[in-house]
Each structure stands twice: as C-alpha cells, then as structure tokens.
Amino acid sequence: MCADETSSTPSNFIRHIIDDDIKANKNDGKVATRFPPEPNGYLHIGHAKSICLNFGIGKDYNGTCNLRFDDTNPHKENLEFVEAIKEDVRWLEYDWDDRLFYASDYFEALYQFAVQLVEKQLAYVCDLNAEQIRDYRGTLTEPGRDSPYRNRTVEENLDLFKRMRDGEFEDGSKVLRAKIDMASPNINLRDPTIYRIRHGVIHHQTGESWCIYPMYDFTHCLSDSIEGITHSLCTLEFEDHRPLYDWFLDSLDVDCHPQQIEFSRLNLEYTVTSKRKLTELVEQGHVEGWDDPRMPTIAGLRRRGFTSASIRDFCNRIGVTKADNLVEMGVLESCIREDLNDNAPRRMAVLHPLKVILSNYPEGKQEELQPANHPQHEAMGTRKVIMERELYIDRNDFAEIPPKKFKRLIPGGEVRLRNGYVIRCDEVIKDDKGEVIELHCSYDEATLGANPEGRKVKGVIHWLSANHSIKAEIRLYDRLFTHPLPDASKEGKDYSEYLNPESLLTLTQCYVEASLVDAQPGDTFQFEREGYFSLDKARSANDMPVFNRTVTLRDTWKK
Questions:
Q1: Does position 167 have pLDDT exceeding 50, yes or no?
Q2: Beta strands in 157-295 (DSSP E)
Q3: What is the pLDDT of residues 321-347, one digit of tens each?
Q4: Which long-range contacts (CB under 8 A, 24 or more apart) does 398-403 make?
C-alpha cells in the first residue's frame, strides 16, 4: 500500500522511491527503516527531522522502524545519552516496539565479516599511524600511495588481526584497513580503516570484552543488512560514503543489501547542530546543560515548552528534499505558536509588578471571578480569580507622561481590568527618589462584565490579587546566537563570538495566578499579553516556581 493513500504527511522523493519499489515488489513489498543515533550527546532538532522521516515511513507503509544505537566509540558514549535518546523518541510519540538494537549487539558478527574480507584478500593489517595514513591517502587532486603493509599475506593478516583482538598491541599501533583503490577519485575508497584498537575503556553494553572497535562506515551498512533494513535513509554528507556502503555489502556474503538514500540535513537559523559545538557549549558553561531551554536539543525544546505536535508539524512543513537550505527560525516559532494558541490555557502573570490600591473597594471584601481558560474552547472550563482591594498590575501598563497612542493607565485615565472592573487612576505615590511605587485608583462597580452602553474604555490590562497570587521566577529566553549563521558566517569569526548576551533574562519579582499552584512541570500556558510559558522542572534558588518563556505572542525579533 502506498503511504499517500492514508497519510497526511506531504509526499517527497523518498516516498516516491518507496512507492515505486512497492509497485515493483522489491523486497517482497516490505518497508523497513531505522533511526541510528550515536549515543555521544543529546538529540537536536535535526535529529527530529530524521526521527519523523524514518518512523513516519515505517508507520505509513505498515512497515517497521528500528531504534539502533551506533555505539562503536565508547570514549564518547554513555548510558545517560542512551536514556535521553529513548526519552526523546518516545516524547515525539514514536515507538520502536521490541526493535531496540545496539551496533555492539553485532560485534562478534562484524568481527567475522572482517575476517571474511581478510580471507578474500580485501583487507589487511596496517602499521602506519594516523598521521601517516592521512599522508599516504593523498588529496582531492592527487592519488594516494599504497601502504607498505598492503601486500601482507592472508595468513599474516589473520594472525595479526586475531592478536589485535586479543589485546597484544597498543592503541594506534595497528589498524585493519579495507583494500580497495588508493587512486580512487573518492577518498572514502582509499583503503579506509575498518578496525582500530581502544584499550582502557568500558563500553556501556559490552564492558571490557573488546579492545578493538569497528569504524562507522563498516558497522553501519552491515548493521542495516543484519536487521533486514530495506531503505537506509541518511543525510547528504553520507552521499560520498554510499559507494563504500555498497562495496562492503557487495564484497561480503550477506542476505540483505539495503538501499542508501540521502536527504538534506536541517539547517536552522540562529543555531548550531554540530555535536562537537553543542558539547562545547555545555562543557564551557555557555549554557546550563544539554537540556538548557536555549539549546536546539529536543530535551531543551521540551523544557522550554515546545510540544511534540509542534515539532512534528515543523518537520512536515520543511519537507524532505535533496537540496540544502536554511530554514527560518520563524517557521519553528510559528508552529509552536499555532499549537499553543489553540491548546494552551490562559492565565495572568505580572512580570514587573506595580501595586494598585482600589480606594473605594470595601476593605476585607473578596469576589470570586470565573474567567474562561480559553476564549474559543468552552470545554476547557473556567478557573477562580480573586478580586480585592489590593492588586498588582504590570509597571509597563502605567505612564505618567504617556507616549503617543498609549492606551493603558495614566493619571486621571481609565482602563478595564481583564475580566474585571473599569478603574481610574486618582493618585500616584512615589518614593524619595521620585520612583512610582503605588497607584491609588477607584473602581466602577457597575462595569463588571460587558461594558454598559455608552461607556468607552480603550485599554484592557491584566492584573492579579496582591494577596492571592504566587511569587514566581520568570525566565525570558531568546535566541542563543545573534547571527543567523553562527558557524558559517562570512566574517570569519568563531561561532562562539556570536553568542547572544541577552539570550536569558531572569525576573525574580514576578507574580502568577494562584490557580497555577497545581501546575506540573512541562505544563504550558498563555500568560495573557505576555507570551507562552512553561513550568520548569526545577525551582528557583528561593524555592519559587520557575516559568520559562516558550515563545512570544508574535515575532518580535529585530533583524
């Protein structure tokens, strides 16, 4: 069955290839994909595109998608990253069922495949060190040179390779290389390394059982073959590796030869997605961790308040092509705004509090108002908000000398409190420095609810009860970099020079509705007139709840 018959996912060239394969009964009409992350860091937004593509195709074609960890470099890998990756895939609402695999599951099989290459005189043990191998490999314009160890006998290579496995040799003293073509115009085919020696590391799955580890290009194609993958989908940087992928499978006795298909990776404005650079951001303290809400990691986006639906929608919108392109940050922000606009409950929060005393409101009186949780969705219900004599409004909603077209509170002027009364500013109280510290206002008891006929009040502001609200810390996150291409700018600067010094502004004197006392970490709300905010898993240094700004109500980024 073709996916387009049931799926709302936009079609693309990969789905067209699969459709043609199914019509031709290739692979007996089966479709099997895999998502193969290396557990050396947290997944980022680019991985989300690959997850949606691979798992989406598996689902839409009634096929399968495996989750397989490419864990062949234990120096950089650990269980924290394994568990984080599992959590991210589940959060995106994809499931690998019982198809969780590790490349390390195949270490013995991979070793035997390497032995098979040696026996076919297609691999040899080389004593050149890493620098010498690079020198012998040549350049893009000059062919490489044969290693002086290239013509060792099969017997000698088998003996040396076994002794490599047995731990007789030091790190870097020997490698196993494929014997292909040192004059190939494709440098990847110039006798690539297949195995290297790694002593003194404990693998998170195999412990200390191995001291030699296979390289990615050798491991990946054979892992695909062992698992019966039909379509091996990867990003464009592996296009030049495809001849090597096919060479290994053509040279060995395998039952399955998957088809590698490349697509463009996700390039998003104002971010970096290099694992090395993301690791540097964490290790050098530019961010608080892999799940810092400024990071483009899936964990960071989740902590910031992004929803799995918005990420999947984003991946659908940008599509799958062969052409490299740069996606505007506004596309991602638009996806989360649309989702939260429809689904996030409304609440009021005062980020810059200014005390208001309603002079004519009876002392001790309290009224329970019941504003809607969402203006368009009655089913989302209402919540309780207390009206009383002492309130907080936002300092930005008052001006002694108002700018032109200012429609909020001014001395002698009136505004409507959101879901409440119309109030008039009668007196401005200042401290010894001339700073406004309090407003004395009067309220019109007849204005609760709809405006009486003939009453004109242009401004509506949000507010909170001073005695029935919760003190909170608000973190205003912005883009991590000031340049849309921080790691590829034309100025020649290092990407870290474009770090945005205003990517985080922390406000510690804020108030939120009392109803948020029951909110759970990850719950996201629209703070009316302020933006969308998510309750963080951590509390502030003063044990206050922390709300992270997910996104503003509209695009306010100045380009």
A1: yes
A2: 175-178, 193-197, 212-214, 231-235, 259-263, 267-268
A3: 999 889 999 999 999 999 999 999 999
A4: 398/354, 398/425, 398/436, 398/439, 400/428, 400/436
Amino acid letter, 352: H
Domain boundaries, the chain: 3-265, 268-345+472-551, 352-461
For 29-54, write each residue's pLDDT tens digit: 999 999 999 999 999 999 999 999 99
SS3 state at 261:
strand
CATH topology for the 3-265 domain = Rossmann fold (3.40.50)
Half-sphere exposure of 170 (CA within 13 A, CB side): 3
Q: Architecture of domain 268-345+472-551 in CATH?
A: Orthogonal Bundle (1.10)
Burial 515-537 (b: 16+ CB within 10 A, else e): bbeebeeeebbbbbbbbbbbbbe
* Active-site residue set: 38, 265, 275
Locate all alpha helices (DSSP H) within 271-307, ordered by sequence: 275-283, 298-304
* Burial tier of 408 (Cβ tally within 10 Å: 0-12, 13-18, 19+): middle
Q: Which helix (H) or strand (E) holds 463?
A: strand 463-465
Q: What is the pLDDT of residue 453?
A: 55
Whole-model pTM: value is: 0.94
How far is CA 99 from each of CA 30, 36, 51, 432, rounded to the nearest angstrom?
16, 12, 15, 70
Amino acid at 499: L
What's the pLDDT score for residue 452? 55
**Mean pLDDT score, 373-397:** 97
Using the predicted structure, report yes or no on whether residue 2 has a pLDDT greater than 80.
no
Question: Of 2.40.70.10, 2.40.240.10, 3.40.50.150, 3.10.20.740, which CATH number belongs to 352-461?
Answer: 2.40.240.10
How remote is the C-alpha of 484 from its chain's centroid? 17
Residues 114, 115, 118, 122: is their CA dihedral positive or negative?
A: negative
Q: Do 467 and 417 touch, CB atoms closer than 8 A?
A: no
What pLDDT, on a 0 to 100 scale, did the predictor assign at position 456?
A: 78
**Residue 365 · residue 388 · CB < 8 Å:** yes
Name the CA dihedral angle for 250, 252, 257, 260, rounded to a multiple of 10 degrees.
Answer: -60
